[in-house]
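Hi support team,

I submitted a single chain yesterday and got back a structure, but I'm not sure I'm reading the token output correctly. Could someone confirm the output below corresponds to the sequence I sent? I've pasted both exactly as they appear in my results page.

Thanks,
R.
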Amino acid sequence: MPPSRSRRKHTVITDWGFPDFDAHEGVHLFSDRESGLSAIIAVHSTHLGPAAGGVRFWHYADSRGAFTDALRLSRGMSYKNAMAGLPLGGGKGVILADAAKTKTPAMLQAFARSIDSLGGRYVTAQDVGMSAADIAAIAGDTRYVSGLPAAAGRSGGDPGPTTAQGVYLGVKAAAKRGLGADSMAGVRVAIQGVGSVGGGLARLLAAEGARLVLADVDAARAAALAAELGAETAAADAVLGLETDIFSPNALGAILTEASIASLACKVVAGGANNQLATRDDGRRIHERGILYAPDYVINAGGIINVGLEYLGVEDRGEVDRRVDGIPGRLEEIWSESEASGAPASEVADRIAQRLIGRG
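Hi R., thanks for writing in. Yes, this is the structure output for that exact sequence:
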């Protein structure tokens, strides 16, 4: 005789063995043998609207690393879109590249079909490893795309410059709050990563007279920009420990760890990289060291504001600029609450974002 229903034991799975699983609405795995596509689309929340977030093309040491990235980045997009006041949820695409980072039209078409199969729950855009041309190619097989170049008939394009503008405004706000500086003239800023966002930030800061130290895994790229701007250079793995006013991470995430935070010799951390904190505890570690921290998904929201409004049919560049100009005010709100409550800025930002997506 089978056991009675009341005596059956049930196991509730809460995180599936992944600490970064955060009640995601869906984590979708795709493969296409013909093109060689292996991809993940993580949908964290659609509480405010379709889950919007770029697609990352990257070579991972193992699939677990890709899965963790998709979980963390999609959650960050939920928070970012909510804090930016956009009627969009949070999601992220990750295409697992081989060691040679082989990318083919067939692979992009297969990824587009994967997006389309979700029926609009996820909207993609450009991210690390993907170009505006790649996004235009994806748009040939799905309409759930934003950030298309002007040649494709829309006003979007590379979100990097708009992200850089927002980060620049956030860095200036952080300098005023953490250093008492009314301008960036003479402020020493170490920038890790000088791609589209970090390079744009460097140019904006240099124009205001900041003293820059540039670092990138591509040392030649850092050296070329340093020569253009009259800046110093440092090794990518050594820049965190430099004595400086502001450390600005603008490369990949999870670089603020227990060990690296202990070695920081700055007064402010403010940069455009996603998921800068390796763990949530690291936000408290920065706070306890007395270092002012600009939560990444608040300061780097310029790009999603640009492509998100495009997807929503808002073609007014003035509205994009108005919302990007609001980034310092959102940071001030977080820092003021952090000062009043004694809670780390990272935790304050998370609480506000969670309330906005109905999870607070």
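A quick pointer for reading it: Residues 174 and 180 are 9 Å apart (CA to CA). Let us know if anything else looks off.

Best,
Support desk
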